[in-house]
Amino acid sequence: MSVFQHILETYSQFFNWEMWGEVLSDPVSWGLIGTLIILEGLLSADNALVLAVMVKHLPPEKRKKALFYGLLGAYAFRFIAIGIGVYLIKLWWVKVLGAGYLAWLSIKYFIDKRKGSEEEEEQAEGINQKGLLMRLFGTFWGTVVAVELMDIAFSVDSVLAAFGVSEKVWVLFLGGILGVLMMRGVAGVFLTLIDRVPELETTAYILILIIAIKMLLTVFHIEMSHITFFIILLLTFGATFIVHFQNKKKEGSRENNS
User: What is the pLDDT of residues 206-251, one digit of tens each?
Assistant: First the structure.
């Protein structure tokens, strides 16, 4: 079977209602979809902040429109990336590259943790006001294209992480759709949650590293069971809240001593 036929077969599964029924009735699938949504929400909080910075120079009535067009582009990219990725992810070297990239994301986060997000926000703002896109397409459409490109950059990370969690088409599709909605609609909730429990951001990148390891193990035909993955997930979140309460206690002790 040719590459093109493999990809067409993958896209045909989007309209396979029997498979849709199996996914919706399988608790494991919902657990995997929930994992993708939580991970997407945690990762997208800062991403939503960057996108807000990118459109803030537009009039208020045009900001939502620019973000909406970006949302449509994000959905289109996810659909294409998942369809092609289901075929590519079967190749061992793609898994190695994907796992390596996810591991690098995690490691880079810890390297850059102390730098904060000021440089990223300034760069996003600079792109909007002075960049080539503004000159080529004008202020509004240049901003829309910039938002599209940023959405694609964010989606690459998310799609790769999704393939590390599951290779089922409908799980990836539902996780991707709900994940994009999380970035647009509920990002504020996750920003508030991360403000209250800042350790959750670190947890997200620890999970990415775990997913990278999970993906790499499949190259050597070692499959991490769903139960094992969920247990690791629960332990990671449990440890996060333990560390958070310990840090709160230390802060309280310092305030009392001072």
Answer: 988 898 898 889 889 888 887 888 899 889 999 999 999 998 888 8
Phi and psi angles of residue 26, each rounded to the nearest 5 degrees, phi first: -100, 115
The torsion angles phi and psi of 90, rounded to 5 degrees, stand at: -75, -15
* pLDDT tens figures, 33-74: 888 878 777 766 666 666 766 777 788 778 878 877 877 777
pTM of the prediction? 0.72
Residue 258 lies in a domain: no
Backbone angles phi, psi at 32, to 5 degrees: -70, -40
Buried b (16+ CB within 10 A) or exposed e, 115-148: eeeeebbeebeebbeeeebbeeeebbebbbbbbb
Looking at the structure of the chain, the number of domains it has is 1
Is residue 126 situated within a structural domain?
yes
Instruction: Supply the range of the domain harboring residue 49.
Output: 3-250
Q: 132 in a domain, yes or no? A: yes
Structure tokens at 245: 């309460």
- In this structure, the chain runs to a length of 258
Could you tell me if residue 256 is inside a domain?
Answer: no
d(CA 203, CA 110): 11
